[in-house]
Amino acid sequence: MTATTTIILGGGWGGLTAAHHLRGLVSSEHRILVIERSATFSLGVSNLGLMTGERQSVRQISRDMANLKRPGIEWVHAEVTGLDPEARTVETNVGNHIGDHLVVALGTELAPEAIPGFEGVAHNLYDAEGAIAIHEDLEQCDGGRIAVLVAGAPFRCPAAPYEAAMLLEAWAREQGIRDRVDIDVYTPEGIPMAVAGPEIGAALCAFMDDRGIGYHFNRQVARIDATSHMIEFEDGGPVAYDLLVGIPPHRVPKVLQEAGLIDSSGYVPVHPQTLELLSDVDTLAVHYPGVYAIGDVAAVRLLNSMLLPKAGVFAEGEAQVVAAAIAAAINGEPKPRGFDGHGFCYVDVGDGLAAYGTGDFYAYPGPRVTMQDPTTRGRRAKEEYEDLLDIWFSVES
Ligand SMILES: Cc1cc2nc3c(=O)[nH]c(=O)nc-3n(C[C@H](O)[C@H](O)[C@H](O)COP(=O)(O)OP(=O)(O)OC[C@H]3O[C@@H](n4cnc5c(N)ncnc54)[C@H](O)[C@@H]3O)c2cc1C
């Protein structure tokens, strides 16, 4: 058997899942390269803990890529600067690579600069340092207006802004200052987690009603005025804030735009089962067999015309499917089953409770998702995402 090289672009939640699964399915002469520009790995979900103070530092929630435990996964510390899916070549700032199989798992980039006034004023919840800055402000807070502002959709983890609001509400109660704190969510969405259907949206609204959190839908921010502490919207009047928790607009990494791989969704269209890059989303014609995109970077169209949410659990499920497909191709085995669109989440509602939601996102005519009441067990299960840090990495160099 000829030795092959699989190149995984991006060593985040999806990319590292793909690398680990593939390593378990093919023999050691087959190379697995992970090209990742960051020297550390962390999960976005840990930012909520940094915000509340449950996690104390970036160091605590991250691991060094150099400490990847599993032999046979080669980390290339580099920035991907170009990609030719036809030739299966990848350009980086430190050299070029050619692969037999490519997995694009570059995630999303944040674009705070797209909203005038956002940078330097809003604390960016989606950045670990921003989450710590929120906590530092909370420590000085004795009351006031906290605004959780979603600056564009789609964004990672559709529940996260609402979780942040509920965690802040629980924090204010614990501090004994709830009567002096207003908490409001402003978002361009029509309902929370719209892709999961109206019942799930209503369930999230009910959680917020129970906690006295205000929510304001169809509010697209236009700019933030740091001097007057006002958020201005494209429609409707401005609102005042004392502490601004922001979720910046997201976009696909520039290198994929430059490679011409995105469609009108702004992301990379892929086959819903195989995750191979599509040339035509209507006929599901695969453009480059053996070239895959998974996780946040991928546009997976659902039967209700919406996109599969950008969440780590989907990145993980897709990564497992792609690893199995690559292994089958390498080992000369039949094609394995494709991705089935099932996913789940734990919505943190504060007070050590999380609600488990799960469903079939490939159902017709749209996703069928249910959500249970919040439990302590749900909260513990959510914390277990962070087990990946110890499963994949040794603790210190
Ligand atoms: C606050 C918050 C809470 C969340 N909560 C949850 C949750 O409860 N459940 C859940 O399922 N998901 C959650 N998510 C979402 C989850 O983190 C993402 O959906 C998941 O990380 C997507 O995985 P990915 O591999 O597609 O992208 P990522 O994990 O973002 O990985 C992409 C990687 O590519 C690298 N990269 C990008 N461009 C380049 C380049 N040019 N060259 C080299 N490397 C590059 C990046 O450095 C990054 O490491 C949350 C996210 C946030 C921010």
Give a list of the ligands: flavin-adenine dinucleotide
Helix content: 25-40%
Report the major sheet.
5 strands, parallel
Q: Label the CATH architecture of the largest domain.
A: 3-Layer(bba) Sandwich
Structure write-up:
With 397 residues, this protein is an alpha/beta fold. It folds into 2 domains: 5-37 and 78-108 and 252-338, FAD/NAD(P)-binding domain; 111-249, FAD/NAD(P)-binding domain (3-Layer(bba) Sandwich). It contains 10 helices and 27 strands. The protein has helices at residues 13-23, 46-52, 58-61, 128-140, 160-175, 198-210, 254-258, 312-331, 376-383, 387-392; strands at 5-9, 31-36, 40-42, 62-64, 74-77, 80-84, 89-92, 95-98, 101-104, 109-110, 123-124, 144-150, 181-186, 214-216, 221-225, 230-233, 239-240, 243-247, 250-251, 268-269, 278-280, 285-286, 291-293, 298-299, 342-350, 353-360, 368-371. Strands 5-2-1-9-23 form a 5-stranded parallel beta sheet, covered by helices on one side. It has a 5-stranded parallel beta sheet with strand order 11-18-12-13-14, with helices on one face. The chain has a 3-stranded antiparallel beta sheet with strand order 6-7-8. A hairpin with a 4-residue loop joins strand 6 (80-84) and strand 7 (89-92). Helix 1 (13-23) packs parallel to helix 8 (312-331) and helix 2 (46-52) runs parallel beside helix 4. It is globular and about 70 Å long. The structure holds flavin-adenine dinucleotide. Residues 10-15, 35-38, 43-45, 47-48, 79-80, 105-107, 125-126, 156-157, 160, 253, 255, 295-297, 310-313, 315, 345 line the site of flavin-adenine dinucleotide. The site of flavin-adenine dinucleotide has 36 residues, from helix 1, strand 2, helix 2 and helix 8.
